[in-house]
Design brief:
- This protein is α/β, with parallel strands linked by helices and about 325 residues long.
- It folds into 2 domains: about 160 residues, Medium-chain alcohol dehydrogenases, catalytic domain (Quinone Oxidoreductase, Chain A, domain 1); about 140 residues, Rossmann fold (3-Layer(aba) Sandwich), CATH 3.40.50.
- The protein contains 10 helices and 15 strands.
- Strands 3, 4, 5, 6, 7, 14 and 15 form a 7-stranded mixed sheet that branches. Strands 10-9-8-11-12-13 form a 6-stranded parallel sheet, sandwiched between helices. A two-stranded antiparallel ribbon has the order 1-2.
- It is globular and about 55 Å long.
- The two termini are about 10 Å apart.
């Protein structure tokens, strides 16, 4: 099969299309023919081995000098072509979506607990846009921040993949949502459910509010600035961010580390949600998408062999919603 592989860290120029053996599903696994695979910020971080601290923190994926896992990609949607021993929830021909390593390929092997039936109202490209980004938003809004009706919630990075899902979720919970984005994305963020949209080119969102919940997905402001925008008993949720600027030791992890340390002494809740995939969350995401609560926004699609161009687009930090590779 064809796959997007990488043998050394670097820019998208290090990616290439290659023929590799098609994986064989083991116990509890399925082989899925990939119809679409979405690009996440995680992909360019892994591609570049950046920040360097991550190479130590995730040895199963990142080696010190070269990627341990050669094939990029995590989120996908497709059809089941083979099931391994012990699989009970799916059969050949089922349309599914989920998370698994090495998704930028014609076929991907995935554990059955990382998959869910594709919502009937979504295309493969839309379904591929869901897993990691929607799970991150769900864990941040529902679990970490515990957003409820009537609260004032601000999402910094509201026009990105995670940001749009976070706005939609907070709105569905009955919160009053403010989204921070660029001028060109104002109407997009408003359509996702934001009652207030802040153009970062003209206004400093840290001097608005204060907010009961602030979800930061950009990592471009200091911890002090972010805390200033949160009520004394409010919640600040820190979830990644950053763009490539030539390599870094800790990158966006620095803000989360400082936040975790400050949380020991602050009255405000400061959390760094960890978007661990689970079958329960994937099922919840499917239900929310089926009900129209979560509507994926696909900025652009690229063929698989143009994965490098797709990652370059995401790496700029200006994609609207999700970027998806299609078969």
């Amino acid at each position: 099969m064809k796959a997007i592989i990488q043998d050394r860290y670097g820019s998208a120029d290090t990616l290439r299309v290659a023929d590799v053996p098609r994986p064989v599903p083991g116990p509890g696994q399925l082989l899925v023919r990939v119809q679409a695979a979405s690009v996440n910020a995680r992909d360019w971080h892994l591609m570049r081995g950046d920040p360097y601290l991550a190479r130590v923190a995730a040895p199963g994926t990142l080696g010190l000098r070269r990627p341990t896992a050669r094939v990029r990609g995590t989120d996908f949607a497709g059809s089941v072509v083979e099931v391994g021993p012990g699989v009970t929830r799916f059969r050949v021909g089922d349309e599914v979506f989920g998370e698994a390593d090495a998704a930028f390929a014609e076929y991907v092997c995935a554990p059955q607990d990382r998959l869910e039936h594709r919502p009937a109202n979504l295309t493969a490209a839309q379904a591929a846009a869901l897993p990691l980004a929607a799970n991150t938003a769900l864990i941040a809004m529902r679990d970490a921040a515990q957003v409820r009706a009537g609260q004032r919630v601000l999402v910094n990075g509201a026009a990105g993949g995670v940001g749009l899902f976070a706005v939609q979720l907070a709105h569905s919970y009955g919160a009053l949502v403010a989204g921070v984005c660029s001028t060109r994305n104002i109407e997009l963020v408003r359509s996702a459910g934001a009652s207030d949209v802040i153009d970062y080119a003209h206004h400093d969102f840290t001097r608005t509010g204060p907010y009961d919940v602030l979800l930061d997905l950009v990592g471009n402001r200091s911890l002090r600035d972010l805390r200033r925008a949160v009520t004394p008993a409010g919640t600040l949720a820190l979830s990644g961010g950053g763009v490539f600027r030539g390599g870094s030791l800790i990158g966006p992890m620095g803000l989360m580390i400082r936040g975790t340390l400050a949380a020991r002494f602050a009255r405000q809740r400061i959390v760094a949600p960890n978007a661990v995939p689970s079958p329960e969350n994937l099922a919840a995401i499917r239900e929310l998408a089926t009900a129209g609560v979560l509507t994926p926004v696909v900025d652009r699609t690229f063929p698989l062999d143009e994965a490098a161009a797709a990652i370059r687009h995401v790496e700029t930090g200006h994609a609207r919603g999700k970027v998806v590779l299609v078969a």
